[in-house]
Write a structure and sequence with these properties.
There is one protein chain. This protein is mainly alpha-helical and 431 residues long. The protein folds into three domains: 80 residues, Fumarase/aspartase (N-terminal domain) (Fumarase C, Chain B, domain 1, Orthogonal Bundle), CATH 1.10.275.10; 203 residues, Fumarase C, Chain A, domain 2, CATH 1.20.200.10; 61 residues, Fumarase/aspartase (C-terminal domain) (Ribonucleotide Reductase Protein R1, domain 1, Orthogonal Bundle), CATH 1.10.40. The protein is built from 18 helices and six strands. Helix 4 packs across helix 5. The model has no long low-confidence stretch (mean pLDDT 94).
Length: 431
């Protein structure tokens, strides 16, 4: 089992006591629903509402004997209700309690995770605005490409977790479904109006159709959404880990006074938070595979999914909450080195401006092939030598025939790459 990393409120949602409280409320509401349509006397429903309760230790003792959690619970509740207890669980099956309760737990967990995502995006937004115009090297294939700003990189992160919010809201809606339809979903012993009544009181939708269970494609969708969010965390943890490499060192995880990086090497300051996040993302992705395996059940139901879900949902919800808070802290306390970003930009000797020159030559009337070969020749000379690209460009008769020295200098400046940064920030609501 994964340690309980997240805040106590999340762990409390998945406690045994919380689960049994949901079971009790579902049973009481079902009795009230049956009374409302005249199936059982109102007096008995009122007695059940007033007297129904349980002692969790007695439930556990009952389960040792019955080897059935729901029966153990029902026996304990019945001892507190008296004769009216005969109406409790009338027409229901165990999964009516289990699946409706699971929906309540997942909805509440989703709400907490959405709050965590909101806080993460707030932390990202602060740092993105701070570094909106901090120049750095953009890389493709890990190789210097063209200039970007660190603010743009963080704005991309902000946007990605905005999509995570949208996906989680959709997954929450998909999972907010309960059922009280009996042993094979036919409502043979319980009027569908009772199902509608109970689900409405609980803030859930009643399943349009079910078997003994709610179909597990809903749960797989929810779990896959958590895995995708974890993968986004992994993506950014990996990004920051690369940027902390000694040869790059453009950003660095906060390193507290007294913290140690290595038992052998006193100088080490390792990206342990990012590495932890990448590792934990693998756990949640593994749980998503298990949820997908749960979709294929026998006929109207088997219980092969049940043991799996007792692990993957509480663990994944708690673990993702922990990861989101850890990521928010990572971003908020991250150390940024603009001077190293500038130094890394300079290492390319201006080669990163080759496309700007290529396009300017084409705009001046040279064919793309001729322009490409002229710029490539200057670039190769720059690679082999020590002088920056703009010097080699000025030495090219072909290039100088259409571009002045001033134009070449302007084309070899990073500012032109940042012309639309403000527009991008406005589109994202970050301006």
């Amino acid at each position: 089992m994964i340690p309980r990393y997240s805040r106590p409120e999340m762990a409390a949602l998945w406690s045994e006591e919380a689960k049994l409280n949901h079971w009790l409320e579902i049973e009481v509401l079902a009795c009230e629903g049956m009374a409302a349509i005249g199936v059982i006397p109102h007096e008995d429903a009122q007695i059940i509402r007033t007297k129904a309760k349980f002692d969790i230790e007695k439930v556990r003792e009952n389960e040792k004997r019955t080897n059935h959690d729901v029966i153990a619970f029902l026996e304990e509740v019945a001892t507190n209700v008296g004769g009216s207890g005969r109406f409790i669980h009338r027409g229901l099956t165990s999964s009516d309690l289990l699946d409706t309760t699971l929906a309540l737990q997942l909805v509440a967990s989703a709400d907490m995770l959405l709050a965590d995502l909101h806080k993460l995006r707030e932390a990202i937004a602060v740092r993105a605005r701070e570094h909106k115009l901090t120049p750095m090297m953009g890389r493709s294939h890990g190789i210097h490409a063209e200039p970007i700003t660190y603010g743009l990189k963080l704005a991309l992160m902000y946007d990605e977790f905005g999509r995570a919010q949208l996906r989680l809201r959709e997954a929450r809606d998909q999972i907010a479904v309960g059922k009280l339809s009996g042993a094979v979903g036919t409502h043979a012993h319980l009027d569908p109006r009772v199902e509608e009544y109970v689900c409405d009181k609980l803030g859930l939708k009643a399943a349009a159709i079910s078997t003994q269970i709610i179909q597990r494609d809903r749960h797989a969708h929810f779990m896959s959404t958590l895995a995708l969010i974890a993968s986004s965390i992994d993506r950014w943890a990996t990004e920051f880990r690369h940027l902390q490499r000694t040869e790059v060192l453009e950003v660095e995880e906060f390193f507290a006074q007294g913290q140690k990086g290595s038992s052998a090497m006193p100088h080490k300051r390792n990206p342990i938070t990012g590495e932890k996040l990448s590792g934990l993302a693998r756990v949640i992705r593994g749980h998503a595979v298990a949820a997908l395996e749960n979709v294929a059940l026998w006929h109207e139901r088997d219980i092969s999914h049940s043991s799996v879900e007792r692990i993957i949902f509480p663990d994944s919800c708690e673990l993702l909450s922990y990861m989101l808070k850890l990521t928010a802290d990572l971003v908020a306390r991250q150390i940024v080195y603009p001077e190293n970003m500038a130094a890394n930009l300079a290492k390319s000797k201006g080669l990163i401006f080759s496309q700007s020159v290529l396009l300017a030559l084409a705009d001046k009337g040279l064919s793309r092939q001729v322009a490409y070969e002229a710029v490539q020749a200057a670039s190769m000379a720059c690679w082999r030598g020590t002088e920056p690209l703009h010097i080699h460009l000025k030495k090219s008769a072909e290039i100088r025939s259409v571009l002045s020295e001033k134009e070449i200098d302007e084309l070899c400046s990073p500012e032109r790459h940042f012309r639309y940064v403000e527009d991008t920030f406005k589109k994202l609501g970050l301006a």
